[in-house]
Design goal:
Number of helices: 16
Radius of gyration: 23 Å
Helix content: 25-40%
Strand order of the largest sheet: 7-3-2-11-18
Shape: globular
Oligomer: single chain
Largest sheet: 5 strands, parallel
Strand content: 15-25%
Number of strands: 20
Distance between the termini: 69 Å
């Protein structure tokens, strides 16, 4: 059927309107006010991505803190797999971004003396977060603040449009194409630079993790972008019956996980840190406890000082509605022990990029969680901080790029654009398997604990064979009844690709380090490297080990966070 075609020209196209995308557009417009900026998102134009669902916790190095102290904490926490130069600059700018938010009207929680309340993270000496004043709504307030500023700067925002392909003139990215997921119109975006802030890949698990599925990763990978850190995924702890945020603040304040015997079992596996650690390590222990017959696992808040509950209980927004519904069903997170489970949520992998978001593809920049910064372990508040800073840096990088390069023509003819339309809309109206059915097959392959948490060559190989089968047999059979489900179809394609990245990279890294645990390789290897993925000429995945250049870094790697833990059979059988 004939479709309406919209052509939109800009100097900068930002794909993704979350924290990274908004900060990128804001900074670019600040530096180059005469240039046109367009942000396009697959969700509503002003929704703010995952930022809307965030509580508002923010890591920041403020006056009086030492950046080097924070860097050394993260080098230790990341088991040495840390780009020290990039992390140092991200941390150096973190305080400015928090103060930008405060200047624009955002409020953090303050103590009676007026100073900001800080909560230490993961047993690290210096890393801490600053919680939002309004529990459960901090991210939503941040979105409103940034949207207001983008309107002032004349940034054009478009929603409900899925970008399917980047367009290149020779090697340089110069635009993109996509479609309106409601009415099916076709969109052509002509731009001189593109910032991909599409978020990470994921597996459509619960509430706030339903939208990051990997179509953005497929988009940039097809364009030739080098990928990084896909052996790392976030396996979070979640209540069995409902979604929730808050353990990042709950655990340092005294909450703990206990097994069916009532034992605070993390003492088996880390006498040093106990429960005050990253969920990655807790979920390994949860899996081993259940395998040993000591499940299920419960969350116990009885040790929290009642005076600190104001930091925990939601006051407004979606979380207060969820909280009230649960109370009516007889479940109160702040009164009762509740059953919790590990839940595989999102991938930590993303584009390999330099400090200012430059990728190996000219004209393509990475911002937010679409670029990789963490090797599978997470300090609470790090995401809102790192996405704001990397977005800000990518805006600077794009401005510098346009100042130093000539404009480039959009190369596609009408005939070529028509062919792209035909390919994009081909699954519409046909008969076949639904995206939901394929999603469930992917989840069934990747979610088992011996694939997502306690990995081994046998379990990873088993899962990879199934993902390859889904890729070859099921993806071509998918059909979409309308353009909304065409969006879902593209999301499932991205999810399958990210799953293949994850499994192949997990097989390649034959060691245990940071957020990657191999039961058949339970110790660190001698070499310290990042694992990069590139697309080969034959379409296959090529893996490269990039050595971490410790000799160029300020801080030597002298200790490892992983050394605080013992997940051996002896530890599992140790009495408490």
């Amino acid at each position: 059927m004939p479709r309406t075609v919209h052509t939109i020209e800009s100097d900068l196209l930002v794909i993704g309107c979350g924290s990274g995308g908004m900060w990128a557009a804001y900074r670019f417009a600040e530096l180059m006010p005469e240039k046109k900026v367009v942000i396009v998102d697959k969700g509503p134009k002003d929704w703010g991505g995952l930022m809307t669902m965030a509580g508002g916790d923010f890591d920041a190095v403020l006056p009086g803190d030492n950046v080097d102290d924070w860097v050394q904490d993260l080098v230790y926490y990341f088991d040495g797999l840390c780009d020290q130069a990039q992390i140092e600059e991200i941390l150096r700018r973190s305080g400015d971004r928090l103060m930008d938010y405060e200047r624009l009207g955002f409020e953090v929680f303050r103590k009676e003396d007026g100073t900001r309340k800080a909560i230490p993270q993961r047993g690290l000496p210096h890393v801490k977060l600053y919680p939002a004043k309004l529990v459960g709504r901090g991210g939503e307030d941040m979105v409103k603040i940034l949207m207001r500023e983008l309107k002032k700067k004349g940034v054009q925002r478009l929603g409900r449009i899925l970008i399917t392909d980047l367009v290149k003139n020779n090697d340089r990215v110069c635009g993109a194409v996509g479609f309106d997921t409601i009415d099916g119109d076709f969109y052509v975006f002509k731009a001189q630079a593109v910032i991909a802030a599409t978020g990470m890949g994921g597996w459509k698990t619960s509430y706030g993790k339903n939208t990051p599925t990997g179509e953005g990763m497929e988009l940039v990978y097809k364009a030739g972008a080098q990928m990084k850190d896909f052996e790392f995924s976030r396996v979070w702890n979640m209540p069995r019956y409902f979604g929730w945020e808050g353990q990042t603040k709950l655990i340092p304040l005294g909450a703990r996980f206990v097994n069916a015997k009532g034992e605070s079992f993390m003492q088996r596996y880390s006498s040093t840190l106990g429960m005050n650690t990253d969920p990655h390590y807790i979920t390994i222990a949860m899996s081993l406890e259940c395998r040993a017959g000591r499940g299920p696992i419960y969350f116990d808040i009885s040790h929290i000082d009642p005076a600190n509950l104001i930091l925990l209980k939601p006051q407004t927004g979606w979380q207060i509605m969820n909280y009230e519904k649960l109370k009516n069903l007889g479940m109160d997170l702040f009164r009762d022990n509740t059953e919790w489970l590990p839940q595989m949520t999102v991938s930590y992998g993303g584009m390999n990029a330099d400090l200012h978001g430059r990728t190996n593809v000219p004209g393509l920049f990475a911002a937010g969680t679409a670029r990789s910064t963490e090797p599978g372990v997470y300090a609470g508040g790090f995401a809102l901080m790192s996405t704001s800073v990397t977005g800000h840096l990518a805006g600077e990088g794009a401005a510098e790029f346009l100042q130093g390069t000539d404009s480039v023509a959009f190369p596609l003819s009408e005939i070529e654009l028509d062919a792209m339309q035909d390919e994009i809309f081909a699954p519409l109206g046909g008969e076949g398997i639904t995206p939901r059915e394929v999603t469930q097959q992917i989840q069934t392959a990747v979610f088992p604990y011996d694939v997502s948490i306690v990995k081994s060559e046998q379990s990873l190989t088993r899962a990879l064979k199934e993902i390859e089968r889904i890729r070859d047999e099921e993806l071509p059979r998918m059909a979409a009844e309308d353009t909304h489900y065409l969006l879902k179809l593209r999301e499932v394609r991205g999810m399958c690709l990210v799953s293949e990245f994850y499994l192949r990279a997990s097989l390649e890294r034959c060691e245990t380090r940071a957020g990657h645990y191999r039961e058949d390789y339970p110790t660190r290897g001698e070499d310290l490297y990042w694992l990069l993925i590139g697309r080969r000429e034959d379409g296959g995945m090529g893996f490269t080990k990039k050595r971490v250049p410790l000799e160029t870094y300020k801080h030597p790697v002298t200790k490892y966070y992983q050394d605080n833990f013992d997940f051996s059979e002896a530890a599992v059988n140790k009495a408490l």
